[in-house]
Amino acid sequence: MDADVLIAGGGPVGLYLAAALLQEGVSVKVLEQRRCRNRHSRAIGIHPPALEALAGIDVAAGMVQEGVRIRAGMAVSGGRTVGTMAFDEVSSEFPFVLALPQFRTEELLEERVRALDPGAVIRGAHVTGVTDDGGGVTVAFGSVAGAGQDSSGSARAALLAVADGARSGLRDALGIPASGRTYPDHYLMGDFDDCTDYGDKAVLFLEPEGIVESFPLPGGVRRWVVRLERPAPPAAVADDLVHLVRRRTGFLPDAATNTMLSSFSVRSTLARRMVAGRAVLLGDAAHEVSPIGGQGMNLGWLDASELVPVICAALEGRPVGRQLREFGKRRMQAAVLARRQAEVNMMLGRPLPAPLLAVRTAAIGAAAALPAVNRWAARRFTMH
């Protein structure tokens, strides 16, 4: 089972890269250890630059058809709208942030990959070792316990793309060091039938106990994300989130309609480099950033989009050392910018005493009222 390129990880980044390479006539194999897709994954926001990249593999139109187009965001405090931000001018083709659950995003991407090569994705395959002999890379993999069929074996390729997530085992196996940060920010989130009249708007509730974020999803569903002072207890249930949302915002989601409940504490991890021999890190394996702001998945897609022409040149026998170095530098700079944006987002959502909260809220409102500042902020939030 050899290929031009092996891709470790069949999440949204690995699947995008596979489709983009297959369109260029490059043979690929995607090794994914999960037998079944996780329907509780938390990424939902797809930003305009990523939609432009996804259009290049013919999946953006289907995603836009199924998703919710968020054309504006609102900041609310004490029941009063203090500022709005429109995305009309961030892109001529995609003047919105698209909300679509990650599991559906992955399904559409995998459908595209399988349309290009029905045998490209190998599920239940856990990578156990990598050997780079300078002329190519060999990957050993075993079957995941309970997979039901034997997916073990080995494969050789000219290049290896590592997209196995934030807790990347291959990053360590390749000897790539990484530095991390932890933050005093913890969140509980869940999806419920929409009980608001906000429609397709995203809403940030800036409240004394901490921020509550609310985003529309397809099917009349709305996601609620509540900041906590400490990690959510393992036994947290939908009623716990409903109570927090009601206390801070006045809205009362129906716990009986809950379809997803998850909690997370924020950390970030940046690899010291993205390239090691014939292996390249992508997405969260290279740069994990806070989910607050929704830029992590999009960063990975933009990594892959920029890498495709470099891979094609390498397979044609052209020297690409300089291109790879420049690629790594640019993408890590983008990751650092995204991490800073996420840190600002988290800072704005932390609890404050009433007098300081009033000052911060007034400052946000004043900034939102300035068209030039509003446009600049909209571009930052949408990764332009």
Short overview:
The chain is an alpha+beta fold.
Can you characterise this structure?
With 384 residues, this protein is α+β, with helices and mostly antiparallel strands. 35% of the residues lie in helices and 29% in strands. The chain has ten helices and 20 strands. It has an eight-stranded mixed beta sheet, with helices on both faces. A six-stranded mixed beta sheet has the order 8-2-1-12-19-18. Strand 18 and strand 19 (279-281) form a beta hairpin. Helix 1 (12-23) packs parallel to helix 7 (296-315), helix 2 runs parallel beside helix 7 and helix 7 (296-315) packs antiparallel against helix 8 (321-348). The relative contact order is 0.17. The model has no long low-confidence stretch (mean pLDDT 92).
General form: globular
Which regions have little confidence, pLDDT < 50, spanning 5+ residues?
Answer: none
Mean pLDDT: 92
Order of helices and strands: EHEEHHEEEEHEEEEEHEEEEHEEEEHHHH
Q: What structural category characterises the helix and strand content?
A: alpha+beta
What Rg is obtained from the alpha carbons, in whole angstroms? 21 Å
**Strand line-up across the major sheet:** 6-5-14-15-16-13-17-20
Number of helices: 10
Sheet having the most strands: 8 strands, mixed
The N- to C-terminal Cα distance equals 40 Å
Determine the fraction of residues in helical runs and give it as a percent range.
25-40%
Strand content: 25-35%
Total strands: the figure is: 20
